[in-house]
UniProtKB/TrEMBL annotation:
Its main location: cytoplasm. Residues 63-370 form the AB hydrolase-1 domain. Transfers an acetyl group from acetyl-CoA to L-homoserine, forming acetyl-L-homoserine. NCBIfam families: homoserO_Ac_trn, PRK00175.1. Pathway: Amino-acid biosynthesis; L-methionine biosynthesis via de novo pathway; O-acetyl-L-homoserine from L-homoserine: step 1/1. Substrate binds at R236, D366. It comes from Sphingomonas jatrophae. The active site is at S167, D332, H365. GO terms for cellular component: cytoplasm. GO terms for molecular function: homoserine O-acetyltransferase activity. It catalyses: L-homoserine + acetyl-CoA = O-acetyl-L-homoserine + CoA. This is Homoserine O-acetyltransferase. Belongs to the AB hydrolase superfamily. MetX family. Keywords: Acyltransferase, Amino-acid biosynthesis, Cytoplasm, Methionine biosynthesis, Transferase.
Length: 388
């Protein structure tokens, strides 16, 4: 969907407020003046960005790596989450001795525009002092990337050694390589796609409708009252099914009941898989905002990198000097290997250097977040090759 022209405002001197050290990371929050000209035509500013950094920048910041998070992720990539108390969402990839290592790299991970963990989003205060709610402007993946570019300007990072991300994070990586090719030396795209299929959009719409059908949603004006927790939980449950594989669900749960002795034959969670999904939904509402879910899923659905470049995906990478690494998983039916192969073909057509591998895993789409040692070896080798 073509939403309009693209640009971003100039940087002014602003204050960055550090908060608590978490493990080896530092949580920060910055207000950037913008204005940020969005794809939809709105001029937005100031832009708040919550982010974390790990490691020490080289004198020229040439060791900087940007980590891009997925739909329900956040900036707490390798540090304890302040709400859940759980370890960072990608400690398997980011940390001491890992492919992205603070001993070698200066790592930045920012909460995306439109989210709810400190960056500007629907829950943020507008000029009238009230939450934006549904007055927040429509955003795209490219808008998220431009906001990240403003942050990197503020940090004095002109070029990135690598941009790394999975799922929606991979979409951001692709957009970084297409919009700011001169700023990206290497791009790692894991379990992602250059656009959403009709099936992807359909699953997201089920989730959005669940949220909007919740009486507590109140057309988005629920701040200060009970949030639409039931609708958001159902949205999370529906989405979570797409993150798993049939084989993985069967192995983990099968048709096992909660109790071997009796069944309720009602609407309680008779099956273990039901209980698992309900737990996923209930725990999710404690850390995420329903309106942010609406905005970010819509941004993912709008994403179509080929359309942004005249309808031909190869045009997005024409003349690029960025090195690319793409990884897919054989059990991922949300973003199957065919999606990664289409990107690889476009990169080949554009003459861009690209490596590609399909890994075997029973974990479905979520494999990029779970224990897949081969993924670490692939990413580690690719990043080290650029450091040689």
């Amino acid at each position: 969907m073509r939403l309009g022209a693209a640009a971003w405002g100039t940087k002014e001197d602003v204050a960055t407020t550090p908060s608590t050290d978490q493990r080896f990371g530092l949580a920060r929050h910055v207000v950037l003046p913008g204005p940020l000209l969005l794809d939809g035509g709105a001029s937005f500013g100031p832009v708040e960005v919550a982010y974390e950094t790990y490691g020490t920048p080289a004198p020229d910041a040439s060791n900087a790596i940007l980590i891009c998070h997925a739909l329900t992720g956040d900036q707490h990539v390798a540090s304890t989450h302040p709400i859940t108390g759980k370890p960072g969402w990608w400690t398997r990839m980011v940390g001491a001795g890992k492919p992205v290592d603070p001993a070698r790299h200066f790592i930045v991970c920012a909460n995306v525009l439109g989210s709810c963990l400190g960056s500007s989003g629907p829950a943020s205060r507008a000029e009238d002092g009230q939450p934006y709610a549904m007055r927040f402007p429509v955003i795209t993946i490219r808008d998220m990337v431009r906001a990240q570019a403003l942050l990197l300007d503020h940090l004095g990072i002109r070029q990135l050694a690598a941009v790394v991300g999975g799922s929606m994070g991979g979409m951001q990586v692709l957009e970084w390589a297409a919009t700011f090719p001169e700023r990206v030396r290497a791009a790692v795209v894991i379990a992602s796609a250059a656009r959403h299929s009709a099936q992807n959009i359909a699953f997201h719409e089920v989730g959005r409708q669940a949220i909007m059908a919740d009486p507590r949603w109140k057309a988005g004006d629920y701040y200060g009252a009970e949030p639409p927790a039931a609708g958001l939980a159902v949205a999370r449950m529906a989405a979570h099914i797409t993150y798993l594989s049939e084989a993985g669900l069967t192995e983990k749960f099968g048709r096992r009941l909660q109790s071997r002795d009796a069944k309720s034959f009602g609407f309680d969670a008779d099956f273990q898989v039901e209980s698992y999904l309900r737990h996923q939904g209930i725990s999710f509402v404690d850390r995420f905002d329903a309106n942010s879910y609406l905005y970010i899923t819509r941004a993912m659905d709008y994403f179509d990198l080929a359309e942004e470049h005249g309808g031909r995906l190869a045009n997005a990478f024409r003349g690029t000097r960025t090195r690319f690494c793409l990884v897919s998983f054989d059990s991922d039916w949300l973003y199957p290997t065919t999606e990664s192969r289409s990107i690889v073909h476009a990169l080949n057509a554009a003459g861009a250097p690209v490596s590609f591998v399909e890994l075997s895993s029973p974990f479905g789409h979520d494999a990029f977040l779970l224990d897949v040692p081969e993924l670490n070896r692939v990413v580690d080798g690719f990043i080290r090759a650029g450091e040689a």
